[in-house]
Q: What sequence folds into this?
């Protein structure tokens, strides 16, 4: 887990070593355990490391092997399996070293075998060829700047903004006000784009390396989900999990045997009683942290100043505050992805399931958070995404391709600012492939959403969780509209 910068110019770099190194320092919270960089007249490669896997010496980055450099952010959960398959005579204790050797051996063909979350740049300093890769669902961020002579990648926009003196993109801010997030492939800054999930960039062109497709055979959810959760726990004992009274985090807790779990809320709005009741019944140890509205608002301000971009959701503040409180763990499991895969946003999914033709304007109005006009590029994205699909198929794809990356950014950013690694076992390609494009009735019935997950809980003796009202995020007894208005006002004041 880390943050990195990669910068390469066809000519000489116009930036000093000190300036570029100080730009790397802007986000050393993503990797406070170690820092390394390479600099010459054409190239700068910098890396901040949060040490999770391997001993202190292995996994140092930038990684140099056979005329190539690698900077890597994320975790390859099946690296031991790939180690045995391709390098049976050499044991790698770090996924960075294994990934680097795989790229040298098989090039980007190895991507299809990787199971995990990752963004990385692989660079041959003799041929000047590079591959900048992002994982299948966009769990790990990857931004880039390209002016024709200089190409730059970063785990955060902030250093690119400083290096190239860039300004906020008004259209992205408009999309944030309307949809909580910018249109895919863009960012909150002019001239900075993101590498799309499941894509890689090479020779100044974007290439799609992964497209979600349903599996032909039916797979039993218990096996696939249990396998994913166990893989995300790994062999590292330094793992804990967020927990609430909801379906997703309860299943993660029931499928794990971790020592401690953590819950968060405010005085006027929390799920502590329900969470403690579940943990008592399931013999789990839970610690609940309560924060004031003042603390939450200060967290919003701190996150905005640190990221230099808008927050997506108010509960980013609670994620950050809780991560700061968790002292003895670096890795935290979270339940993002379950709602997108199993139709947890049942009001929208139910409405589109009854339609034979998609009304794009009506959908945008139903999904949006304000009366701000949608941008033309966002409407074009929605139109292209809906082409040759039924309304419910479009809705499934929209929540996977637009909504999910927003939630993943919401989780990755505040947890990394607190120097914690968040893992999302529901966002696993084998799990998504097993349940993608399954019938509407498979996921929602007349009473419940996320039916496959509810069935698991019922079989395990926790059916009361399945009928509990979905609480969502609120910081007080005020209306949701009032909360988001206050949240947006604070974010605007900090950034705009």
A:
């Amino acid at each position: 887990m880390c943050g990195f910068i990669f910068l390469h110019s066809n000519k000489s770099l116009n930036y000093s070593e000190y300036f570029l190194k100080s730009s790397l320092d802007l986000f050393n919270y993503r990797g406070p355990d170690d820092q390394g960089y390479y600099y010459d007249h054409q190239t700068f490669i910098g890396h901040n490391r949060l040490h999770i896997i391997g001993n202190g010496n292995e996994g140092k980055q930038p990684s140099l092997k056979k005329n190539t450099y690698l900077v890597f952010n994320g975790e390859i959960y099946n690296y031991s399996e790939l180690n045995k398959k391709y390098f049976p005579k050499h044991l790698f204790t770090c996924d960075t070293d294994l990934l680097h050797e795989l790229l040298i051996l098989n090039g980007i063909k190895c991507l299809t075998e990787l199971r995990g979350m990752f963004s990385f740049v692989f660079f041959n300093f003799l041929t000047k060829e590079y591959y900048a890769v992002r994982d299948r669902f966009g769990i790990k961020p990857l931004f880039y700047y390209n002016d024709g002579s200089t190409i730059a990648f970063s785990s955060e926009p902030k250093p690119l903004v400083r290096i190239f003196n860039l300004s906020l993109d008004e259209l992205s801010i408009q999309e944030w006000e309307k949809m909580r997030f910018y249109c895919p492939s863009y960012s909150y800054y002019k001239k900075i784009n993101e590498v799309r999930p499941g894509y890689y960039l090479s020779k100044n062109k974007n290439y799609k390396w992964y497209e979600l497709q349903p599996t032909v055979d039916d797979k039993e959810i218990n096996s696939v989900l249990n396998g994913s959760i166990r893989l995300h726990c790994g062999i590292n004992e330094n793992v804990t999990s967020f927990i609430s009274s909801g379906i997703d985090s309860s299943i993660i807790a029931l499928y794990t045997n971790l020592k401690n779990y953590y819950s968060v809320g405010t005085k006027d709005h929390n799920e502590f009683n329900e969470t403690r009741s579940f943990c008592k019944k399931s013999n789990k140890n839970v610690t609940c942290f309560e924060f004031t509205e003042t603390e939450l608002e200060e967290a919003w301000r701190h996150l905005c100043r640190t990221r230099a971009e808008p927050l997506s959701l108010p509960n980013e503040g609670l994620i950050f505050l809780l991560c700061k409180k968790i002292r003895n763990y670096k890795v935290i499991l979270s339940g993002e992805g379950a709602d997108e895969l199993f139709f947890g946003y049942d009001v929208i999914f139910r409405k589109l399931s009854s339609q034979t033709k998609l009304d794009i304007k009506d959908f945008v109005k139903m999904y949006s958070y304000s009366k701000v006009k949608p941008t033309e590029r966002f409407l074009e994205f929605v139109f292209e995404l809906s082409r040759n699909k039924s309304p419910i198929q479009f809705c499934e794809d929209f929540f996977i391709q637009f909504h999910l990356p927003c939630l993943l950014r919401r989780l990755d950013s505040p947890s990394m600012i607190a120097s914690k690694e968040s893992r999302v076992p529901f966002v696993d390609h084998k799990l998504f492939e097993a349940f993608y494009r399954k019938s509407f009735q498979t996921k929602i019935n007349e009473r419940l959403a996320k039916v496959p997950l509810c069935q698991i809980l019922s079989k395990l003796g926790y059916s009361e969780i399945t009928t509990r009202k979905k609480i969502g995020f609120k910081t007080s007894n005020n209306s949701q509209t009032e909360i988001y208005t206050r949240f947006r006002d604070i974010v605007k004041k900090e950034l705009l």
